Structure formats: C-alpha cells, structure tokens
C-alpha cells in the first residue's frame, strides 16, 4: 500500500464542500453540489463490494450523486441471506474510542434524518422503516446519562420513578422515540433504488481485490467481516448474535437493557427478542440453550413474552472492529495503482450508521476521482 488517508483526516478537506451542501431531499436522495471537473469523467468504473446495509447504502449514494460514473455492486450473498437481514435495526449507538465524537454524531444524524424521511413517507411499509418508542434501562446509573445521540432522537428524557417501578432490578432508564429499520424489507428497497439510479448488480464471490483491479477504476470495500480476507485486516473479528422473531402484536414499545444483551424490539410484522454479543465466536448454528436464556431474560422484563409464539430463530456474525474503517488508500494491485475506499467494521451498529458512513465514503470516492490521472477520466 503506497498511500492511506483515513476519514478523520479528510474531515477538514470535506468541510468546505459539505458545509454548503443543499439539504437532503425527501428519501435522502444523494444529490450534492456539483464539483468542477467531475462531470467530465463519464465512464469511470466504480465497484462496491458487499450487499449488506452498508454496501447498498454506499452504492446508492454513489450512483445517485455521481450519475456520470458506471457503478456496479458485487456480492456473494444478497437479501435475505446477509447479516443485515437479521439485525434488529433499532437506531442508537455506542461510542467508538478513536473516532472524533463530532464525526460519530454526524454519522448518526445523517442516518437518522435519512430514515426519518422514509418513516414519515408513504414508502414506510415497503421500506420497512418505522418510528419506535420505548425504554433503555440500567441496573446501575451510567456515568453518561445523556449519550451523544440523545439530542438527535425524538423526546429523549430520563424515566420517572413511576415508569421504573415495572423494572425493579433497574435503577435508571431513558425514554425516547427512535427508528426501527427492518433490513429484510429495506435492502430490497435499496436494491431497486440502486437499479433506478443506473446501478448494476452481479452475484459473485470476490476472493481478492486483485481480481477487480483491471475492470474498475475505483474499488469501494463494504464487505464487512469479509474484509478480514479482502483487506487483510486482522482487527476485524466476528461478534456472534442470536435472536428470535416472535408473534406478540400486543407489544408496542421497545425495551433494551443497557448492557445490550437483552432487548425486545416490536416491528412491523413481528417482535425481535435477543440476544447475544459473543466476540470471536464463529458459530452459525442456533444454540438452544441460548434461545432459552433469551426468552427467560426478556420474560423478566416483559412477562408476556413467555406467551409469544416463536416464528423463527436467527444467528449472524457482526463485523466487529475497535473502530469502523472509513478511509481511502491507493493500493498496488497487479502492477496498477488503484484507489480503494473502505467502509466496514460497524459491529452491531451497521443500520444505525450506514447512511452516515456511506456519505463519507461518497466524499472519499469524489476525492479519488479528483486525484485520478487524466487518462483514466476519459
């Protein structure tokens, strides 16, 4: 690798171009202010690797904002067989240790605003995006009672003593309205939006970025856990998650234990209950002991869960990493210098941050185009 620039360094360079960016239109179409010189780059070939929520979000942003480029998306698996399909998809976040908080805040805000537009539109049921109100509860009072995203969700407040009475083992809680995004509907909706923007989709396994070097001018890596192999990134590791979908239409409010391991998320067609967060665990089979534990733990928060009929069980491997990797580099691939933009490693926060990091990835692609030799632009 001969050149690397991470997204935090690019922040300052992008501020000038994004500060005056027009407001996102309905459904957050990725229309950005034109940049001199880019419109002459017709025929530049961009490929996005990965068809999860991060991959499709990134592909849509690029295809809509850079219509003069030929944008393709490659993946071995598509919905309903991606890790994103099993995600609970509720929007709130944890802090990553080495990324400026303002950047994390922007990622969250851009994603929340994008999905809120959809939730408040006629596309809500088709896209699987809805408003969701409920409680996050803690057995001990957290050091930070107001997380960085508290002003970005709707109606965030501390729970009253009366509200906490139903959770006798918990001392503190937060009440707010956020968004639930069900990827089993959202991914096919994004797929169609990508096609409408002129994107091309191919189902194939990418074993190495080397094999893409001659066919594309810019590579965008959104392969999640696959980046362990594709990018040679040993920081990426599996975080095993197991959930159940149950039939419980009487449940209307989410409940999440602050440790993130026990939660109840009502959705459009079912209720997701979970879960597990097992670092370094590659098992993809359903563990019946863990399924029983999930029902018991969720039943302690909401006793009626024990009466709910189990519709399905799911296991997935989240792409864990100390921090998401959102950066660009110039890679030497088969004797050719090829710009590569990375956007992966979101862990259990893929749905929460996907649109925000996709916009950052778009900015990095635009920087790649600016630095591209003239012969590649023709």
Low-confidence stretches: 7-28, 31-36
What is the distance, rounded to the nearest whole angstrom, between the alpha carbons of the first and last residues?
25 Å
Oligomer: single chain
Q: Globular, elongated, flat, extended or rod-shaped: what is the shape?
A: globular
Q: How much of the polypeptide forms β-strand, as a percent range?
A: 25-35%
What order do the helices and strands follow? Answer: EHEHEHHEEHEHEEHEEEEEHEEEHH
What helical percentage do the residues reach? 25-40%
- Report the radius of gyration as a whole number of Å: 21 Å
The main pleated sheet reads as: 9 strands, mixed
Report the mean per-residue pLDDT as an integer: 90
Structural class estimated from helices and strands:
alpha/beta
Per DSSP, the total helix count is 10
Number of strands: 16
Protein name: D-aspartate oxidase
Domain FAD dependent oxidoreductase: 45-358
Organism: Gasterosteus aculeatus aculeatus (three-spined stickleback)
Keywords: FAD, Flavoprotein, Oxidoreductase, Peroxisome
């Amino acid at each position: 690798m001969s050149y690397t620039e991470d997204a935090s360094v690019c922040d300052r360079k992008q501020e000038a171009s994004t500060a005056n960016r027009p407001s996102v239109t309905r459904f957050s179409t990725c229309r950005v202010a034109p940049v001199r010189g880019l419109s002459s780059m017709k025929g530049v070939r961009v490929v996005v690797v990965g068809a999860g929520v991060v991959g499709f979000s990134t592909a849509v942003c690029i295809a809509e904002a850079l219509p003069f480029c030929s944008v393709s998306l490659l993946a071995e698996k598509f919905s309903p067989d991606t890790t994103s399909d099993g995600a609970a998809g509720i929007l709130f976040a944890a802090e990553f240790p080495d990324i400026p908080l303002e950047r994390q805040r922007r990622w969250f805000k851009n994603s929340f605003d994008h999905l809120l537009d959809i939730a408040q539109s006629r596309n809500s049921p088709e896209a699987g995006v809805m408003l969701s109100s409920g409680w996050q509860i803690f057995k001990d009072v957290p050091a930070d009672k107001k997380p960085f995203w508290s002003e970005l969700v709707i109606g965030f407040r501390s729970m009253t003593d009366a509200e906490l009475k139903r959770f006798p083992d918990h001392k503190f809680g937060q009440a707010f309205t956020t968004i639930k995004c069900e990827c089993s509907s959202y991914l096919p909706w994004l797929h169609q939006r990508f096609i409408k923007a002129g994107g091309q989709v191919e189902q194939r396994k990418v074993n190495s970025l080397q094999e893409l070097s001659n066919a594309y001018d810019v590579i965008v890596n959104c392969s999640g856990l696959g980046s362990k192999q594709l990018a040679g990134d040993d920081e990426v590791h599996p975080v095993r998650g197991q959930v159940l979908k149950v039939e419980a239409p009487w449940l209307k409010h989410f409940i999440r234990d602050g440790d993130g391991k026990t939660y109840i998320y009502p959705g459009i067609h079912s209720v997701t209950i979970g879960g597990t967060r097992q670092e370094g665990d590659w098992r993809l089979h359903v563990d019946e002991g863990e399924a029983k534990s999930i029902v018991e733990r969720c039943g302690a928060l909401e006793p009626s869960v024990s009466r709910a009929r189990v519709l399905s069980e799911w296991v997935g491997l989240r792409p864990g990493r100390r921090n998401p990797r959102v950066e660009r580099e110039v890679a030497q691939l088969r004797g050719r210098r090829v710009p590569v933009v990375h956007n992966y490693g979101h862990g259990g926060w893929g749905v929460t941050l996907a649109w925000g990091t996709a916009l950052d990835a778009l900015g990095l692609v635009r920087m790649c185009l600016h630095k591209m030799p003239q012969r590649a632009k023709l």
